[in-house]
Amino acid sequence: MHGLGNDFVVLDARKHPLVLCEHQFRAIADRRRGIGCDQVIVLESARHPDADLFMRIRNPDGSEASACGNATRCIAARVMGETGRAHAVIETVAGLLMAEREPGGEEISVDMGEARLDSSDIPLAEACNTLHLPIALGPLQDGVAVSMGNPHAVFFVPDVMTIDLPSLGPQLEHHSLFPARANIEVVQVIDRRRLRMRVWERGAGITQACGSGACAVLVAAVRRNLTDRTADVVLDGGRLIIDWLDNGHVRMTGAWAQSFSGEIDLARLSDREGDHV
Questions:
Q1: Which residues contact 73 (CB under 8 A, 6 or more apart)?
Q2: Each residue of 215-238: pLDDT tens digit?
Q3: Catalytic residue chosen out of the listed positions 37, 68, 74, 215
């Protein structure tokens, strides 16, 4: 499945528990030896009584992520297809996410929860003003930190296409200010209702879209008084509509798609280091 080109291998472990090691997650995500994806999503039975299921997120490097907006829309669409309802509750490491189908059925909205802005919530290695981060790397300076259940550092630039994200992204992801690493967004303000964004995702690299990143970008732009509280965020893979609601929650609306379904023999995979799994 994918949301705006941010693609996922979805494994359903609700009826039969599935235990995979990091090598296996890396092998599945490998675009040459495995299936290939930005994240592997494992569906598990819900822990919370109000949830339809538990969504576990694994990055291509095998590490676990706590939030993924594009995957949430995809999985919510799957749940709605199973139940026949126009809403779903997806449980994640970051908490419960409420989703509903928009009129017409092509887009799904997700309440991504409250944007958190304190240093300890990001988290940052030291207390500082999250509206003006004390880090700079080439053209990326004076960033804004936002947590959407995962850490984001947002940098506003005149033109996102001039930024060497393959070089700057990994350096900032691993900056000492971010003890849990960070997702890195570069953003160009088109007008008060439209932003252009590119992203380096923690543990995944450059992706076509990042839902939680788009939410963080809108929050950062509003805090800087650069946009209204509702705006289109245009990513490499398409458009998301982001609303920073009065209650502090961020609502994301966008498309989703299922590319194909099938089976994979894990015993035939090898990871990037050549170890058999």
A1: 3, 99, 108, 110, 211, 252, 254, 255, 256
A2: 999 999 999 999 999 999 999 999
A3: 68
